[in-house]
Amino acid sequence: MKRCLLVILVLSWLQGCSSFKLGYPQLPTLGYWWLDSALSFTDEQSLRAKEALQNTHRWHRYQELPTYLDLLERTTALSQSPVQASQVCSVWVEVQNKMDRTLRTSITQAAPVVMALGPRQWSHLARHWEVKNEDWEKEWLQGTPDERLERRLEKSLDRYSGFYGELSPQQITLIKAQVAQSAWNPHWGRQDRLRRQDDLLSALRQARQSGSVAQVEASLYAVWQRWLTPPDEAGRMMVQKMTQQACDNLAQLHNTTTPEQRLRASRRLRAYERDLRDLIKP
């Protein structure tokens, strides 16, 4: 379920802005800890990884963050009126384009580090994923279909209420129907999760045999593209359907919100704008 679905991305991004101002300066350190827990770097690899993360963070802060300010300003204006699904999808396309630019820069910085990884790191990553996959399966596959649906509903309600405030019984009923009709299912989610992991691990192993940084960059970027868009027709159709449903669902719910709920959303968005302006100051 924790894919790049539009509703999750947009709402999680907006909710995350409340702690973004405090956490953003720490991203290189937090990113290193996360990567090291997954890969178990050697001392030399650690130095390279830290430098790559610092370079990427510096670029993102001064080149990319200002573009998010413009997106937030336009989203604030949109939040005060009824919206169409096409407008929601337009926001998603912009977010995806920003993610793409960030990944391109990250890959350029990461390629030399990736080429230095070896069997120890690959094995550690495979074991790390085994543990994470067990946790994922407990969260999304355990229990009866009704119990799994209820857990998904609770997460959706938390995201929406965190942005709009208290939801009405009618809005809760609407969200429950949307979750029940979702094209996503945990069995497909598990299969796609394993596909993406295998794809990345294969690219990491091949990188060590490559003598060209440019080839490694191209290979990693291709993995990223396949993470977003599965290579098989059925997978692509599933992602397209989920994305369209997410656009439809968010627009449908937003158009049921009260003036008070929209005011709350607007205030939060303006607070996020202030935080971003503080972060991009020299």
Automatic annotation (TrEMBL):
Pfam family, one: DUF6279
The organism's place on the tree of life at top rank: Bacteria
PROSITE patterns in UniProt: PROKAR_LIPOPROTEIN (PS51257)
Protein name in UniProt: Lipoprotein
